[in-house]
Amino acid sequence: MRLISDLIGTLAVVSLLALASQADTPVGANSDPVYQQLRNIGLGSESVSVTNFELKRDAATFHLHSGTVCFVTPVEGKVTGAVFVGDGGMTFNPPNHDEERSLKLLTKDNEFDEAFQHLVLRFTDSTYEEIKKAGTAASGGCDASLLQDSQHTMRKKLHTNLSARILQDVLSDRPGGLFVAFIHGKHYDGQMLYTIDPTRRREVRHMGFVPYFAGLSEPAWRCCRGSGYLYRASAVGHNN
């Protein structure tokens, strides 16, 4: 049991690439009105239709073949998230031969190519501008529960305060670079996470992905520049 507990704690740290934990919440943040907006954020009225759009983030490329992207309500004039509903896929090209070999061992496939119909994005980089520029105004909506599920996952299952991390960039005068994708895929147990956070010195241009629900049949793993970690799902499961 001690080993299982240690693995759970380690996975929470390395798999999320040092995204801000609840302990990192700034003093007084719980009562800060901007923080509360981010914590209780929902989908806004802006949405676009996209066709054959590619969003490249480091070693990952998100292919939005066709569908609708609905953006979250702006906070302090900044849009920090979106939900995609439609036909899409994600490809991942390991940055070096060692990571490529490790990924093949983990996935049992020569290539990482995940198809999805739903995608939730949280970001402080240029994702909003890129998608909006490529899309056309849409009249359709998206399933708001997808965004709510991602928030629940971060808070209750991964014990990570993503809202506090986003708050840092929203209040900053500098451009943000955070990118988090919740991938509702078809091949790897339906749920995966991909993150980039350049604010951590050791995590610059780091990326990682991990199936994040308990009871997975596949191993949970982290794959990122210069290192790789493998955890059996049985060691981290049943952490509800």
Describe this structure in words.
The protein has about 240 residues and is of the alpha+beta class. Helices cover about 30% and strands about 30% of the residues. β9 and β10 form a beta hairpin. It is globular and about 45 Å long.
Which helices and strands occur, and which strands form pairs?
Blueprint: H1 2-14, H2 33-39, E1 43-57, E2 60-72, E3 81-92, H3 97-107, E4 112-123, H4 127-134, E5 136-137, H5 144-157, H6 162-170, E6 179-185, E7 192-196, E8 208-209, E9 220-224, E10 227-231, H7 233-236
Strand content: 25-35%
Number of strands: 10
Model regions low in confidence, pLDDT < 50 over at least 5 residues: 1-25, 201-209, 211-219, 225-240
Strand order of the largest sheet: 5-1-2-3-4-6-7-8
Task: Offer a few descriptive terms.
240 residues, alpha+beta, two-stranded antiparallel ribbon, 28% helix
